[in-house]
Amino acid sequence: MDFLSNIFAYPFRWIFNLVGQDYLITLFLFALIMKLILFPFGIKQQKNSLKQAKLRPREMAIRNKYKGRNDKATQQKLNEEIMKLYQEENFNPMSGCFPMLLQLPILFALYGVITKPLTYVLQMDKGVVSNIMKALKSTSEIGAINQINAGKVVEGLSKTDVSRIKELSDSFSYGGFDLSIMPQNDLWSIYILIPILTFAFSFASTKLIRKFTFQPQTNQDSSTKASMNIMDFMMPLLSVYISVIMPSAIGIYWMFQNILSVVQQFVLYKMYPIPAVTEEEIKEAELQLKGKNKESKKKNVVLSDDYYDDYDKTEKTDKSGNNSKNEGVMSKRKKGISPKVLEMYKNGTRLRAKKKI
Question: Phi and psi at residue 327, in whole multiples of 5°?
Answer without folding.
Answer: -70, -20
